Automatic annotation (TrEMBL):
Subcellular location per the Swiss-Prot or TrEMBL entry: Cell membrane
Family statement drawn from the similarity comment of this UniProt entry: Belongs to the binding-protein-dependent transport system permease family.
UniProt lineage: Bacteria, Bacillati, Actinomycetota, Actinomycetes, Micromonosporales
Transmembrane regions listed in the UniProt entry: 12-33, 68-90, 123-149, 161-183, 216-238, 268-287, 321-339
UniProt keyword list: Cell membrane, Membrane, Transmembrane, Transmembrane helix, Transport
Keyword match Nuclease: no
Gene3D superfamilies linked to this entry: MetI-like
CDD domains in the record: TM_PBP2
This protein's name: Carbohydrate ABC transporter membrane protein 1 (CUT1 family)
Keyword Transport among record annotations: yes
One GO-annotated biological process of the protein: transmembrane transport
Length: 348
């Protein structure tokens, strides 16, 4: 099967246009960021030289001019945020109030559909299970790893191995675990889990077809990936505990268990909150694992995967947009809590 340049010419032209546009935009921004400050600096230097030569008082910077200068640098960022975030968000909200073809207004009917359709209710329950289990379990394993390998002999090697899954994409990790859960009817199993079951005298199962077990097995993949992130953050927080506090507690004769609950846990509380909040947001948006492992079948779909299916597979733009808006609403309280928590830490 050969490659025909004539057939692929439109795609190649589109790729070339994209590359040219990228070079022009990024190169233009870099040029402006280099030329404009240098021009203002030369102008300011000329004013200072002229004022010094004429014996006049040195000109002062005016706040309006400084504000315009700051706005100039913020303008590209604000423009990109407007194009890439604000406008799509507003458009998605409007589409969520329309029918599947985005031609007729249906009001809040799509939101009512979310809570009345049994299959979508199942999706919402699955998402809730993910949000409840993944942050807590991943943070728990990360904390356990951090405590166990802290000041161990091969601490660097152990941390590298634990953190290694973070270097794998969600899709790659899902493919790896699909081989772990793989099923073969007769003979030797190619799936690690089924091979262990068979070696213990059990019967192999199609693990990803049995609900709700399949959802829990997909959650294992997410925990395996994110536990390394939690371990790194919490290990850094543990090492930041002042040594005099730890030494004073040991002189008071506290047990290791008391040291953990009375010294370590209160000291790393801010880091724990950051890890839980970060994992909660990542879990709410999980898509790759479900899409790669089961494609949302067998009662494993979550909001992000169902949003994709409704909008791009079934052509229901209104329902897909309603799910996207609902997901956005779920993320907002978590973000607000994190902002308030960081503000309290800064003020404290």
């Amino acid at each position: 099967m050969g490659f025909d340049f004539a057939d692929e010419q439109p795609k190649l032209l589109m790729l070339m246009y994209g590359l040219v546009a990228f070079v022009v935009v990024v190169g233009g921004l870099l040029l402006l960021l280099d030329v404009v400050p240098a021009w203002f600096a030369r102008r300011r230097e000329a004013q200072l030289v002229a004022a010094s030569a004429g014996g006049a008082p040195l000109p002062r910077r005016t706040k309006p001019r400084e504000g315009l200068f700051a706005l100039f640098f913020l303008l590209p960022t604000l423009l990109l945020l407007l194009i890439g975030l604000v406008v799509p968000a507003i458009r998605t909200m409007l589409l969520s109030l329309m029918d599947g073809s985005s031609t007729n207004w249906v009001g809040l009917r799509n939101y009512g559909w979310m809570f009345s359709d049994d299959s979508i209710v199942r999706v919402l329950i699955n998402t809730l299970v993910w949000v409840l289990l993944v942050p807590l379990v991943a943070t728990g394993f990360g904390l356990l790893y951090a405590v166990m390998v802290d000041k161990a002999r091969f601490e660097a090697v152990a941390k590298s191995l634990i953190f290694l899954p973070m270097a794998i994409s969600f899709v790659g990790a899902s493919i790896i675990w699909k081989f772990v859960y793989a099923y073969r009817g007769e003979g030797d199993q190619i799936g690690l889990l089924n091979q262990i079951v068979v070696s213990l005298g059990g019967e192999p199962k199609q693990w990803l077809l049995e609900s709700p077990l399949n959802t829990l097995l997909l959650i294992v993949i997410m925990v395996w990936i994110q536990a390394g992130f939690a371990m790194v953050v919490l290990s850094a927080a543990i090492k930041a505990i002042p040594g005099d506090i730890v030494e004073a507690a040991r002189l008071d004769g506290v047990s290791p268990w008391q040291m953990f609950w009375q010294i370590t846990m209160p000291s790393i509380r801010p880091a724990l909150i950051v890890v839980v909040v970060t994992l909660t947001i990542a879990t709410l948006k999980v898509f790759d694992i479900v899409r790669t492992s089961t494609n949302g079948n067998y009662d494993t779909s979550v909001i992000a995967s169902e949003m994709y299916n409704q909008a791009f597979r079934y052509g229901q733009n209104g329902q897909g947009s309603a799910l996207a808006v609902f997901l956005f609403i779920l993320v907002i309280p978590v973000v607000i809590y994190q902002i308030r928590n960081l503000r309290q830490q800064r003020e404290g």
